[in-house]
Amino acid sequence: MNNTILDNAKRWLSDTFDTQTQQEIQNLIQNDPKELEDRFYQDLAFGTGGMRGVMGVGTNRINKYTLGKNTQGLSNYLKKVYPNEALKVVIAYDCRHNSDTLAQTVAEVFSANGIQVYLFEELRTTPELSFSVRHLDCHVGIVLTASHNPPEYNGYKVYWTDGGQIVPPQDGEIIAEINALDFSNVQFEANPKLITNVGKEIDEVFFNASVANGDFKAAGKEDFHIVFTSLHGTSITAIPEVLKRAGYTKVTIIEEQAVPNGDFPTVQSPNPEEPEALTLALKKADEVGADMVVGTDPDSDRLGIAVRDQHGKMVLLNGNQTMLLMTKFLLDQRKAKGFKGNEFIASTIVSTPMMQTMADAYGVECKVSLTGFKWIAKMIKDFPEQDFVGGGEESFGFMVGDFVRDKDAVTSTLLACEIGAAAKARGSSFYQDLLECYTQFGHYQEKLISITKKGMDGAQAIKDMMANFRSNPIDSLDGVPVVRVEDYSTGIATNLLDGRSEKMDIPASNVLIFIAEDGTRMAARPSGTEPKIKFYFSTNATLSHTADYDNAKDQLHQKIDRIIASLNLS
Asked: pTM of the full predicted structure?
């Protein structure tokens, strides 16, 4: 075993750590060096969605000591940045195992550092936490969640004064403060006077804000039937009430999944991106003749939507499709009132290019960021003179306006229902409206492939895969020459037709995008929250009539499948 890893582990045998932790470390040293290696070969770092990891002892795990050290470093950083202010933080947590106790530990460390803490008394959604940062005029917000990761995971998201997640250079500066600490520097002795429980009073304001931003007085609400599942997560605390306040009376809740449970016992994965997660809801929808199914992930920032297609069958839409129709609906609402000329929508580099095409058609700007809603929140902060309409990313996230500064399944669920109810009332449907988008702006189809590579060896394998793509770049996609390569690690885009390069005005990230002459795209990106490498494919064609959609869709997906096979990714 690497001596550095062993030395790191032995530091956890000191009196800084409790007896149970010391005993577990000693047992791993003696009996399971491979597991010990995985727990100590690195420190958990902030990725696209905060810090996530498997729970357990070790520097590469989520536990009271790693989160305590994070919180101590963040406390020190806050005192440097705001030296003469009375500091305030708000903390929320989701349904995962240990989320409540870890949240309490984080609150105690903040209070031990003289910082006023508002701690939600029970589990709450991530969008409500983001909203609460500005509502309570806090300097920082924390939510304990691992989003849609498996049950053994937990995580730590940090939000700044604007309600958006931390971005460079703050994240690097905070990490530097954390890395400068020893675990013995963490102040765990709480000051109970500085910890205040909050709950229903914040709920009331948040629910009203969600309705104000997501309710467009759609016709036909009383005739629109929704099946909703929280997938054992936090959205049960918010979405049913928001739908009720907006006037929806036909809402069927999947009771088997309504009780928060960190084991997520009825699904393989609590991820609405996975069709299996919505099996119970889809079955119920057919039983009751529902118009729409909505499912959310454990912390209620992602939403999956299923609607009836032109054949009356319930189909799960992907994140690009819901993002497109939600954005179009919001743009239509703005257009009806008259554009002011400063509006913008937002998306990410691995999401559908159709967002840009649609923005051009409406005459508004489409800003494109790296993956992660923290970058969209940063746009809102960096361009206060502009008006953010809405936007999202392919991974089933959307944000309506700027009152929440992270993806928000609560308000987005209401918006989706507004679109569906309004469409049904005029004899159309959510699905039919999407197909009309394809005839109007171009027919785009996308697909995502994720390959899991766990542990230290897996991390190296992912690194090697990205290195191979850079040293042996793709020269064609389904026989069509690649004409542009965008390498976000260097910030350089190369035109292969003339050999010219240009600097891209976007932060560095380990992403490669290959674009063919016909607009077909392939992006490769290591996940920032899971031990995976992800490949994103997009291709397009014209669609003259919605009746031709099924055949046209099949042709585009066959093209994507040929590309996947040619890259040996299937």
From this structure: 0.96
Helix (H, G, I), strand (E, B) or coil at 191: coil
Q: With contact defined as beta carbons under 8 Å apart, do 405 and 162 qualify?
A: yes
Active-site pick, 99, 130, 132, 147: 147
CB contact at 8 A, 246 and 310: no
DSSP code string of 146-189? -TTS-TTEEEEEEE-TTSSBP-TTHHHHHHHHHHT--GGG----
- pLDDT score at 1: 65
- The SS3 assignment for 341 reads coil
Q: Scanning the structure block, which residue is given the tokens 């409790």?
A: 18
Place of tokens 């007085």: 217
Q: Is 75 a catalytic residue?
A: no
Q: Tell me: the pLDDT tens digits for 382-422?
A: 999 999 999 999 999 999 999 999 999 999 999 999 999 99
Angle formed at CA 73 by CA 69 and CA 77, multiple of 5 degrees: 170
Q: pLDDT category, 124, cuts 50, 70, 90?
A: very high
In this chain, the answer to whether the domains covering 63-198 and 205-441 adopt an identical fold is: yes
Which CATH code of 3.40.120.10, 3.40.47.10, 3.30.420.10, 3.60.15.10 fits the domain covering 205-441?
3.40.120.10
Report the CATH number of the 63-198 domain: 3.40.120.10
| C-alpha triplet 195, 199, 200: angle, nearest 5° | 150
Mean pLDDT of 118-147: 98
Closest CA to 559 of 439, 438, 445, 481: 445
Architecture, CATH, for domain 443-566: 2-Layer Sandwich (3.30)
